[in-house]
Amino acid sequence: MTLTIKAWKGKVRDLLPSFVPLVILALIPIFLTDPYIIHLLTVASIYAVFSASWDLLSGYTGQISLGHAVFFGGGAYVAAFLTMWYNVPPPICIPISGAAMALFSIIIGVPSLRVKGPYLTITTLAFAETVRAIIIAFPGITRGEEGLPVKSMVSGMIPNFYISLFLMTFSIIIMYHIANRRLRIPLTAIRESEITAQASGLNTTKYKVLSFAISAFFSGMAGSFYCYYMMIVSPALLSADTSFMAFAMGVVGGMGTIVGPVIGAYILTLLSELLRGVIARAHLLIYGIIFVAFIMLMPEGIIKPLIKLIKKS
Amino acid sequence: MVFAQVLICQKALKGLETHLKKNIQESVGLLIATIMELIFSGLVLGAIYALASVGLSLIFGIMRVVNLAHGSLLVLGAFLSYYLYNIFIPDPLITTILAALTVFALGIFIERLAVYPFRAYEMRILMITFGLGIIVEQIVLLAGALGMWPMYIMSRFYVLGSIDLFGIKFPIQRLVLLAVSTILICGLWLFLTRSKLGKAIRTLAQDEEVAMIFGIAIERIRALTFALSGALAAIAGVLLNSIYMFHAHVGWEYLLIALAIVIVGGLGDVRGTIIAGIVLGISESLVGYFISPSWRTTCFFISIIITLIVRPSGIFRRGKET
Questions:
Q1: What is the pLDDT at residue A139?
Q2: Which domains are seen in chain B, by residue range?
Q3: How far is Cα B272 from Cα B55, in angstroms, rounded to an integer?
Q4: Per-residue pLDDT at B322 exceeds 50
Q5: d(CA B138, CA B84)
Q6: C or N terminus of chain B, fewer CB within 10 Å?
Q7: pLDDT for residue A234
Q8: Interface touch A133/B305, C-beta < 8 Å
Q9: Rg for chain B (alpha carbons), in Å?
């Protein structure tokens, strides 16, 4: 009995530092009423989910996916069609589109996860580009490059902000639990050495597909909320640029940590806005430069020095 | 997007309709002529695609790494050439060479600064080149926003007219494109097989240690290969731009096409890449006519998947599988 209490205390103590920034975030609308900052934080929360889900696949299993936008944009399209054709209420749409993307990822994951390393990266990149081309090829249904208008879930900045915050917290806790408790050993075993993992009797394909599906599920949820928030879905959501956002946030924050990409998402979103005054219309250029600098100089991301700093103080 | 192709298709279709009314035999002849024309335009495309992908294959052969900035460099070449053509020199040959040289210099710069120091980490190089691809794409976009060039460009260089041979029309423009790309591919082939430098590149691709023993300056060869592949991509971009319209984002599509060709041809195999480029170019042209031009990306993707399932080392690769 005392043991479980101790374990619980330990868990609470472990989780406490991550709740402090969350509470600060939740209180921000009280102090800052600038709608633009609220908007940025909402978008950053959505990208945090997207980037963390990318991290669950690429950071933990080492299978670098450069086409993750296919799940983000795919989820957005599924949600848009569900609301448009069947009038499904948005709160139900979000998990449905996540599940649809998980199913979709299993269908494409089984053949493409057989290949390794650069081949997988190429396949994912090519896949996203292909789905984008298919969406553009049916302008009768998807309205091509213009995109579909979507009804918003709730009106107003602040409700949307809290919903995104809730979605973020909920997804991150689940993903953190999955990646660091439930599947930590098989996933990291695959990353360190797939052959060794196979030799010790681990069904690597099963775990790779599983992490692919979980990752696609959360990406799809993030994407569908994004489309309700932005009130539009367009094929640009599936472009290499969008995949790159998740990728850059994950790398800047720190791959293989789940929490890292969340920090990366907030840092990059806010930083690119700060620098927008310097170079207009070029936030992806700034992302690109920061990203390349991080890979070259600090491939572990920002989280490790951050943890050290917290432990010291 | 696919103006030239659509134009050919429409012309052929119109011709097909009127002839069907006359008699069947003639229309069958016309269909064959249409298919021949399609195969010809596919051949042109394929030759340019081969030119665009050979560099990717060479880089993979030497560094075991896929350069994901390749597509963006291709688009950059086309935009630079367009800019030079508009501003300074209205001569397609000189602008193409200047654009290729600029991308060549950029290639050396990238290789020295961002690829060579990380040669031990393949995945990191892959990520860096992806990031660089995004940077180049965004710079092209930004320059467009600043008014250096329009958002959508189409090469100003255009030769009108066509040659009729056995009832098949050969547009002179395409013939020029075919000639240029064939000359470049043959030149590259001769360079790789005959010249000392080319032999050094091939030796390095086969075995790094042996190359070192023979006293080949590996660092220099790596930079040269990277830059050469960029320059070839830039030239291919200029050539492609007189068939298809370009936008900054289009680079990823051409990256996908080049990757498909390289995978089908066998990563690192120059000969296989050239064959695969021509085969896939012809198939793109046929798919574009009989199904729809917007399915071409899908066609390339399917060829990647089939190759990975059937023979991951490349369908047109010579010799044993690796």
A1: 76
A2: 3-310 (1.10.3470)
A3: 13
A4: no
A5: 19
A6: C
A7: 85
A8: no
A9: 20
- Shortest Cα distance, chain B CAs vs residue A240, angstroms: 7
Indicate yes or no: CB of A292 within 8 angstroms of CB of B122: no
Pairing of strands B168-171, B162-165: antiparallel
B-side interface with A, Cβ within 8 Å? 65-66, 68, 114, 117-118, 122-124, 126-128, 130-135, 137-139, 141-142, 145, 249, 252-253, 255-256, 259-260, 263, 292, 294-298, 300-301, 304-305, 308-309, 312
Task: Select the residue from B297, B311, B313 to test the A interface by mutation, using most A Cβ atoms within 10 A.
Answer: B297
CA separation for the pair A264, A149 (Å, rounded): 30
pTM: predicted TM-score of the whole model, two decimal places = 0.83
Q: For residue B291, is pLDDT > 60? A: yes
Token code pair at residue B219: 């660092």
**Which among A105, A82, A205 is positioned nearest to A153, based on CA atoms?**
A82
The pLDDT > 70 percentage for chain A reads 92
Q: What is the pLDDT of residue B67?
A: 86
- Could you give the ipTM of this predicted complex? 0.81
| Predicted local distance difference test score (pLDDT) of residue B20 | 63
- Residues in chain B with CB shorter than 8 Å from the CB of A126 are 256, 259-260, 300-301, 304
> What is the torsional sign of CA A247, A249, A255, A258?
negative
Beta carbons of B255 and B66 less than 8 angstroms apart: no
Partner-chain contact A291 B131, CB within 8 Å: yes
Q: Which residues contact A266 (CB under 8 A, 6 or more apart)?
A: A41, A44, A48
Nearest to A105 by CA among A86, A124, A121, A89: A124
CA distance B297 to chain A (A): 6
A240-253 helix and A283-297 helix, angle to the nearest 10 degrees: 40
Quote the percentage of chain B above a pLDDT of 90: 16
Q: What are the residue ranges spanned by the domains of chain A? A: 35-238
What percent of chain A stands above pLDDT 90? 3
Residue B314, pLDDT above cutoff 60: yes
Q: For residue B259, give how far its alpha carbon lies from the nearest alpha carbon of chain A (Å).
A: 7
Give dist(CA A39, CA A300) in Å, integer: 29
3-state secondary structure of A240: helix
Looking at CA atoms only, how far is residue A40 from chain B in angstroms?
21
| pLDDT tens digits for range A98-138 | 899 999 888 888 777 777 777 778 888 888 888 888 888 88
- Counting one residue from chain A and one from chain B, the pairs whose CB atoms sit within 8 A come to 122
The residue of chain A with its CA nearest to that of B306 is A111
Distance from CA of B22 to the nearest CA of A (A): 34
